[in-house]
Amino acid sequence: MGSWSSQFAGAGPTYGMNVDRRAPGRPRVRSHPRRYVVVFALLAAGVALAAPYSYLARAPIRRHTAEIGLTAVPAKSVTPRMRGNVTEHVVVISVDGLRVDALAAYAPPTIQRLSREGATSLTAQTIIPSLTLPSHTSMLTGTEPRVHGITWNTDQTLARGQHLPVPTIFTVAKQSGLRTAAFFSKSKFHHLEHLPSLDYSQSPDGGWGKIFAYRTAEDVERYLEFGRPNLMFVHLGDADYAGHFLGWMSPAYGAAVRAADDAVRRIVAAADRAFGPGQYVVILTADHGGVGRTHGAADPRNRTIPWLAWGERVASGRTLPVGIRTMDTAATALWLLGVSLPSHVVGRPVMTAFRN
Question: Which homologous superfamily does the CATH classification assign to the domain defined by 45-65+77-353?
Answer without folding.
Answer: Alkaline Phosphatase, subunit A (3.40.720.10)
